[in-house]
Design goal:
The chain has 109 residues and is mainly beta. Helices cover 0% and strands 58% of the residues. It has no helices and 8 strands. The strands form 2 sheets. Strands 1-8-3-6 form a 4-stranded antiparallel sheet, with no helix packed on it. A 4-stranded antiparallel sheet has the order 2-7-4-5, with no helix packed on it. The chain starts with 6 loop residues before the first strand and ends with a strand.
Length: 109
Amino acid sequence: MGLAEPLSVSQALLSTDNYVSMAVIDTGVASSLTYTLKAATNNLHWQVRGGNLADMSDAVVVQSQATVNAAAIGTFTASPAYYRYYDVQIKAASAGNQGTGTVNGIAKA
C-alpha cells in the first residue's frame, strides 16, 4: 500500500461469536492512520488492533470493542500511528444476526 492510497474491504461475517480480521495496513513511513466501518446490515461490534509484526501475532487492542448500528459509521484515528501494522476486527453484535460491513483505511505521512 502506498501512502494516502485507500484500502477498502467488504466481508460478510461467518460467525457471530468470533472476530473476523480484515484491512491490515502497514503504516511504514506514515504518521497517521484512520479507519471507518460502515455496518451495511445488522449491528456490528468492532475493535482495532496494532502490532509491530506483519502477521499481527504481537497485536494489542488499541480501540476497545464498540458497536456500530446498521447503516451507521464508526471511526478510529491513530495520530501518531505508534504501531507498524493495524487491522480491524468485526463480529455480529447479536448472536444469530450476522451482518456485513465495509472497512476503509488510509495511512498518511
